[in-house]
Amino acid sequence: MHEAIVDSTSTRSQRLKAATHAVHDVLDKRIMAAGIFTGREQFAKFLRAQYRFHRDIDALYARPRLHALLPELDERRRLLKIASDLGDLGKPLPTDARGRLDETTSLPVALGWLYVAEGSNLGGMILLKFAHEKLGLGSDFGARHLAAHPEGAARHWRQFTTALDAVRLSPTQEEDVVRGAQDAFRTVHHYVEEELPLAGSSPVAGHA
Question: What is the DSSP string of 139-180?
Fold first, then answer.
């Protein structure tokens, strides 16, 4: 049975942006409040949060169905680059639980998480600029995962969203994509709270 395409004047990526704006904005402000550019030690804690998120989605990059739908999926994987960044700074990798997503994760939920992972690339160049100016880090040491694709971050993002928008999904699956993206943002926020606690903050409760 063929899956229906949701009738809308906006694209899926535009709807995702609107549906995740609030959680995305809160996360961005929380990261900057942590002062990740005040020193390499603090930046390394940010890298740990990044590593934990990308470890959560790493299994998705091996899924043939996603390879068929999304262009250059292998090139979009950043876990190993983050591991190299931590190694550059002499920090061990987080050793807690394995990734949250695997081969049993539904396609719509997987697309929502990958939307968040790819979207973070757009702000990567700004973070890279600060990392270079304030910490002496760059695309070849300590901040590799923030470097843009050789074709440019914006173009690489458009290629991804064009492919994402073209995937055929039912109305129920559309809701699952949004839920996946929102869960992804909340998960990153949880990792930031754990790795970069603010002074006087309470211990973070477990994340479901």
Answer: TTBB-GGGSPPTT-HHHHHHHHHHHHHHS---HHHHHHHHHH
